[in-house]
Each structure stands twice: as structure tokens, then as C-alpha cells.
């Protein structure tokens, strides 16, 4: 999911009425239709797949964005992509408020939360690199495509190390685009199938869902909570804590562990491919890698809206989210109004803090602040939790996924240009990262719980 903020400092998103208000209206309509349809369970052999409003929102938004009759203008799609970052902070604020009350229970899962990043790294590299290089003959593009699920910071790492014209970067871009378009759906289907088959526990699946993309995490945990509604808050709290760990360690693990490991394994798989008759770019040797930390490109938001513009944007989408809450819960409680204002304030404060502490992702700030306010030792925890208790978390994410869907049309050509081989590898990377992190979490919960 793209979280790149549309470049604008001097002009507010609200002043760009053609783009902002069009996108806002479409997001409201798409989210409202999705929420009105409600969850649907599809039984498939011995498993079941939960279809949720957040999935409908991605699909419907993508249809609106990509359809040929009157496609959404590219500037409006860019606006939708730029709105994802501030609006998703509201969802993350509500998610963080679930962690505080669960702190004691999360302590027993601390080993799993810390070790799940190992599963993300080794799942994508060890299992997917041979598929990319040996079976599909992607050559150097396989390095970029498999060293991580390639969210924005990881694209920055690859761009710095290899350059924007290198095969490694094109491979990373392919995984990024496929993850943006299909990631939430893939994660939801995987979580539904694995959860219904009983292969892994719901706790392990929730931890494994923190692959570094909030939309993928939301899709996976949303599917799990539909299957295990009584554990909803606990599962979301686990995934939120795991996401916080990934937010802090993910870029560093990718730059200093996953990428060097991928480069070290690449020559071996190239030799295997050559013995099987692969030639040309499929067996291309490694070039020298550029010097650098691998983190300079992690910050993609070089030009950001002003904090005043961000506050106005949050205010407008607060109304959109409130409407979707009414559709989801069929009620409007007075406390919900106060709870929504609280979430908007937490989101704005977190974004403001991250502007001054550039090394700290705003998602981490949001969840840390929300966790502290809702922790048992917080004097205001009771009041805050009372305000947000009736806010449906999954419904809060529906407008976010609608924005993601509305921004996807601009990626269609790039997705087609990536070729079917990169699409196959990207889907495999997402699945392997999720499943391996879940397996590590399951083992940790079984043997390392305190």
C-alpha cells in the first residue's frame, strides 16, 4: 500500500477542490456501499474465506479508478494516494488504544513479537529467491523482488544501493505494485484459509500479519476477527504490537540482513540455473553495490502538506469515518463523537511529532502514544476507553482501503509491464513472509512464552 504523500506545501489539499472533494465523495460512496454489503463467508472445501467490507472497498475503489468509460483522473488518483498516510493514522490510533489494556497479556507473547521479523526475512529470501532465479529466470530482478515485500522504505533501500534503472530496482517495484494492488486481498484469503484449517493459532496469525503494510495487516486481522469475534480486541492488539516492532526494525532488517543475505545466495542459485540451461540475463552476475547505509532512501515524503492542511484533511475524513460507523453499528452514540475527535487529535499529534523526529515513523508514534494513554497505569485510561468503546475498528479501516483502491489505476500499466513472472514472485513473497512469520510466532508462543 502506498503511503507517499502528494507533494504540496504551499497549497492545501482542501483548496484543490477538483481532486480532494471528488476523491472524498467517492471514498464515502465506496466505503458506504462496502459497509452496507457486510461480511460474507464463502465455504471452500474444508476451509472458509471471509469477505469483509475492507476487501470490497479495495476492489470497488480499484474498479472506479481503472474502468475505461470514465476513469478517475491521474491527479485525483495521486490525491487519493496522498490521503492514505494521514487518514490511516486515525485507524492506527484506535488500534493503539487496544494495546494498553492488553499489556499484561502481550507480555507473554513478547518473544513472538520480537522474533516475527526473522520469519519475514527468511521466508521471502530462502523460499522465494530460488523460485525467482531458477524456476522463472528473473536473474538480478529476483534480488529486488524477493528480499522483502518491498514497501516504500524498502524501495528506497534498493534505489540507493543499485539505482533506479537497475534490474534489482525493477524487481522490487514489481513486488511493490502487486502488493499495493492485491496485498490486502491475498493476506485476507491466507488468514481465512489458515485460520479455518487450524494450521496456526489465531494469536500467531495476528502476529504474522504484521508484514510491514497496514492494509495487508488490516485485511488479515479483519478476516480473523470475523472468524473469532470474541477475540477481536486481543487479536488486533497483537497485530498492532507486532506492527510497531516491524515499523521500528523492518527497514534495518531489510537493509542490513535481508539484502546482504539475498546477494550472498544469488550466485549459488545462478549456478543452479545455468546447469539447468538458463542463459542471458537469467544468469547475470552481480555488479558492485553502491556504498551507503541503505536507509537514506527510506524517507519518501520529501514534500509534505503543512500541519494545518493535515488537520483540515483529518477533520473532513473524520466526518466520512463517522458516517461509516453509523452504517456499521446502526447507531450513533454521543460518546462516539468524542471518541472520533480524540482519534483525530491523536493522529494529528503523532504526525506532527514525526515531522520533528524524522527518524521515528509516525505509525510508531501513534501507537506508542495511544498505548500509553490506554495503559492500566494511565489516569485517563478509563475515560478514553469509554469514549472509543463503540467505535468499530474494521469499519474505521473501510474508508482507508477505499482510498487505496481509488489510487490503483495509475499502477495498472506498471503492473502489466512487470510481467506475469514478477506477479507470481510477488504473490509468493507476500505469502511466504506471512506464513513464515506466523510459523515463528507459533513456535515462540509454544516454547518461549513467559
From TrEMBL:
* Record keywords: Membrane, Transmembrane, Transmembrane helix
Q: Which domain of life is it from?
A: Bacteria
The membrane-spanning stretches of this chain are 20-37, 49-67, 79-99, 119-138, 176-200, 206-228, 235-259, 310-328, 335-353, 359-386, 393-410, 422-448
One Pfam family per UniProt: DUF3100
* Protein name (record): DUF3100 domain-containing protein
Naturally occurring in which organism (per UniProt) = Actinocatenispora rupis
Amino acid at each position: 500500500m502506498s503511503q507517499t504523500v502528494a507533494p504540496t506545501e504551499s497549497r492545501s489539499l482542501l483548496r484543490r477542490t477538483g481532486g480532494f472533494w471528488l476523491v472524498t465523495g467517492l471514498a464515502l460512496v465506496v466505503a458506504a456501499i462496502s459497509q452496507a454489503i457486510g461480511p460474507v463467508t464463502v465455504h471452500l472445501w474444508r476451509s472458509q474465506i471471509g469477505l469483509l467490507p475492507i476487501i470490497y472497498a479495495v476492489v470497488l475503489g480499484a474498479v472506479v479508478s481503472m474502468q475505461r468509460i470514465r476513469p478517475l483522473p491521474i491527479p485525483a488518483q495521486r490525491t487519493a494516494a496522498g490521503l492514505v498516510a494521514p487518514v490511516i493514522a486515525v485507524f492506527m490510533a484506535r488500534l493503539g488504544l487496544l494495546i494498553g489494556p492488553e499489556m499484561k497479556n502481550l507480555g507473554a507473547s513478547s518473544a513472538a513479537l520480537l522474533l516475527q521479523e526473522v520469519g519475514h526475512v527468511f521466508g521471502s529470501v530462502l523460499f522465494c529467491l530460488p523460485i525467482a532465479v531458477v524456476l522463472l529466470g528473473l536473474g538480478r530482478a529476483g534480488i529486488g523482488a524477493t528480499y522483502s515485500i518491498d514497501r516504500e522504505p524498502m524501495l528506497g533501500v534498493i534505489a540507493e544501493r543499485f539505482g533506479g534503472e537497475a534490474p534489482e530496482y525493477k524487481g522490487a517495484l514489481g513486488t511493490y505494485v502487486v502488493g499495493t494492488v492485491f496485498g490486502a486481498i491475498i493476506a485476507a484469503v491466507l488468514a481465512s484459509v489458515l485460520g479455518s484449517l487450524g494450521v496456526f493459532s489465531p494469536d500467531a496469525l495476528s502476529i504474522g500479519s504484521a508484514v510491514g503494510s497496514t492494509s495487508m495487516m488490516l485485511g488479515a486481522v479483519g478476516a480473523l476477527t470475523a472468524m473469532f469475534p470474541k477475540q477481536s480486541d486481543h487479536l488486533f492488539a497483537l497485530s498492532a504490537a507486532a506492527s510497531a516492532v516491524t515499523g521500528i526494525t523492518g527497514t534495518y532488517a531489510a537493509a542490513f540482513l535481508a539484502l546482504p543475505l539475498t546477494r550472498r545466495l544469488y550466485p549459488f542459485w545462478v549456478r543452479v540455473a545455468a546447469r539447468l540451461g538458463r542463459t542471458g540475463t537469467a544468469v547475470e552476475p552481480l555488479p558492485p553495490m553502491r556504498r551507503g547505509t541503505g536507509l537514506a532512501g527510506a524517507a519518501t515524503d520529501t514534500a509534505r502538506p503543512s500541519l494545518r492542511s493535515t488537520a483540515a484533511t483529518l477533520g473532513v475524513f473524520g466526518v466520512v469515518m463517522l458516517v461509516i460507523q453509523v452504517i456499521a453499528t446502526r447507531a450513533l452514540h454521543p460518546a462516539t463523537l468524542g471518541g472520533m475527535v480524540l482519534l483525530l487529535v491523536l493522529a494529528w499529534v503523532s504526525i506532527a511529532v514525526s515531522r520533528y523526529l524524522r527518524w521515528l515513523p509516525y505509525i510508531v508514534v501513534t501507537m506508542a502514544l495511544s498505548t500509553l494513554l490506554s495503559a492500566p497505569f494511565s489516569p485517563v485510561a478509563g475515560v478514553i476507553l469509554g469514549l472509543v468503546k463503540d467505535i468499530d475498528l474494521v469499519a474505521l479501516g473501510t474508508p482507508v482501503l477505499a482510498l487505496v483502491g481509488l489510487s490503483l489505476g495509475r499502477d495498472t500499466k506498471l503492473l502489466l509491464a512487470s510481467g506475469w513472472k514478477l506477479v507470481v514472485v510477488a504473490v509468493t513473497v507476500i505469502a511466504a513472509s506471512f506464513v513464515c512469520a506466523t510459523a515463528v510466532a507459533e513456535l515462540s508462543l509454544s516454547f518461549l512464552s513467559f
